[in-house]
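Help! Submission page says 'invalid entity' but I think these are all valid:
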Amino acid sequence: MANRMITLEVFRYSPEGDDEATFQDYLVPYHEHWVVLDALNWIKDHADGTLSFRWSCRMGVCGSCGMMVNGEPKLTCAVFLKDYYPSPIRVEPLINFPVERDLVISMDDFLAKLQAVKPWLIREEEEPPADEYLQTPSQLAQYQQFSMCINCMLCYAACPEIEGIPDFLGPAAIALAHRYNLDSRDQGQSQRQEVLGGEEAVWGCTFVGECTAVCPKNVDPAGAIQQAKVASTKDWYRHVLLPWGKR
Amino acid sequence: MKRSNEAFWWSLFSAGGVMAALFMPAFIVLTGLVLPFTTGGDADLDYERAHQVVTWWPVRIVLFVVVFLSLFHCAHRIRHILMDLGLRAVSTVVAALCYSGAAAGTIAALFVLGTL
């Protein structure tokens, strides 16, 4: 068992010297219970210490280890070598993001988009109440699914619209904005609507649905965007038909 | 950020999708199966019965709404497909062509249904 091997074709790029990215093949021991991240860690420890990639929890919670595995956006801690063996596995950084080094992408643009939708509870009053805000199970159920996002960015790599419209707010940020809009404790919908109702936000989406297909936490960002479109449409008609009303 | 007018076009697209999904299969069953199979293959009788149904004013109104919204649904989808295929640089022209096509179809439907 131990002498069975599998090839990983790994994307390599160094900003210091390389003009172009290359692929480097590594022969890695094959174990049935190993995931792609285990193989990458084996390379880092035993074959090539210069290989750079992000990872942390190894259990699909932190969202750090998202990469393209044979062309599909995956959490590398959740895809097993046995699903590809004996064929080689090609590992690349997530597409639609600038590459910093090897398998590490720049998250700056994504983080700016997340921040733009104010993903926190917004209250109108200055001081929070002495007691906690109570919520019924049905109020929790309204948004709970959309709160499971781990910011792994697989949906941004899967989305064909991001490629065409780089400023598109994108699935995770819209789903998160929608999550807070649906929260009974939140009063910030009109503030978020300024961002959500724009051309590069909900209207950039043509409901391809790949974001939902690749989401490892079953958040259904495509569903969130469709619901946000309905909310944005109501807001538009309210604004046009009742321009004197409260936004 | 400016409130996008896309909401208006999307509301027509969305309503058109619902209308098409809800009514088109029923129309196909009625005009394609029920009418021909209940008149014993008499084409004149088929026409008479279909004409009677379509010229009833509530049916004219329903048909007009279904056709009008389905056309705008179609125009919106074609517009976005064309933009995805690389015509984003001329998006205003694409939008104008698609929606004016749907508007022309709507006027034609209004004329046909009004003069039946």
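Support: the input was valid. A stray whitespace character was the problem, and the output above is from the cleaned input. Helices of chain B lie at 6-38, 43-54, 57-87, 91-115.
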